[in-house]
Amino acid sequence: MKNTDDIADVRSAGTAITAPGGHPDELLPDGDEIPEFVLKELEKLSKEDREAMLAAYAHDHEEVPQVTTVEEAIKHVHTQVENGADYVKIMIEEGTVMGAPGLPVLSDEILKAAVEEAHKFDKIVIAHVLTAHSSQAAIDLGVDGLGHLFIDRPDYTPELVQSIVDSGVFVTPCLVLNSSIIGNPASQLANDPRVHSKLSLDWIDILNSSFNTFPQGNIENSFKNVMDLHRAGVDILVGTDVAPVPVPNLGGLAHGASVHHELQLLVTAGFTPIEALQSATSKPARRFGLYDRGRIAEGARADLVLVNGDPTTNISDTLSIKAIWFKGVQK
Q1: What is the spatial distance between Cα 215 and Cα 60, in angstroms, rounded to a whole number?
Q2: Do residues 85 and 123 lie in contact, with contact meaning Cβ atoms separated by under 8 Å?
Q3: How do the domains of the chain map onto residue ranges?
Q4: What is this structure's pTM?
Q5: Residue 273: helix, strand or coil by DSSP?
Q6: What CA–CA distance (Å, rounded) separates 252 from 254?
Q7: I need a labelling partner for 133 at 20 to 30 A (CA). Which of 87, 106, 159, 329 fits?
Q8: What is the rounded distance in angstroms from the CA atom of residue 30 to the CA atom of residue 79?
Q9: Helix (H) or strand (E) holding 70
Q10: CA atoms of 257 and 116, how far apart (whole Å)
Q11: pLDDT tens by residue, 170-222
């Protein structure tokens, strides 16, 4: 939603380009039945809002256009742009780290056509990747950003890092997701009174669980990978990859709260608190062309958060929120 004064901006890539039966199908419930957790959320809404949500759910679960050819990929890009997509996203996910090895992935030829078509519309293209191999594939396709950080650390990691540097792409590591994938719940975050007091019990339960689809993974590899990229000059952006509602099989993540967790994990990896804050403010604004925000400066939008403490020295102080201003108006 753009040009509104009472809600945050929402920008989207619309429906990602993926193979029939490809990611994220393995994460979605089977059939057309509305999941229980969605019905539970609907009960809390007014009749008007409930009907709007049901209509939106039906729209989101209509037959997704199949992409199996270059022509269909190009058409899909056109459809997303016509529907108002701000960016274009492609999926390169064969499923091993998601506990679903063998997921279908579109050919490089098809994905390359999608990337090139999106660029004709001046759209940023982001690739979902979770391994070193898929990360290099995305770079070779000419994408602008990597959504997620490769969770493995093969011998050719230095060459991959250099390839990412040379390409000029940004990386949104979503360390919170990598941590969850290898089986780490976000219990420390869930138990923080500044989080616990603001989330429903459903969301607290989700934070206290995890994906646990790649328990053989090692979070230290992700920390080393993100620091290699950071030290090499790659723009690292804060992101969390969370579900819109508390989904039992997508544990360890929660809207809003996981942003603060991501900041903490970046600092644990080796970022200074100021560098982590830049990855959540000025760097995303610059990389996504939002030049009117992301920094405190004359002429910039007055989107401000007041906290107790000093997050430039103690990053968890970002959770001690006292007040928020949106376009200069306190909320």
Answers
A1: 32
A2: yes
A3: 25-33+67-299
A4: 0.91
A5: helix
A6: 7
A7: 87
A8: 25
A9: helix 70-82
A10: 36
A11: 999 999 999 999 999 999 999 999 999 999 999 999 999 999 999 999 999 99
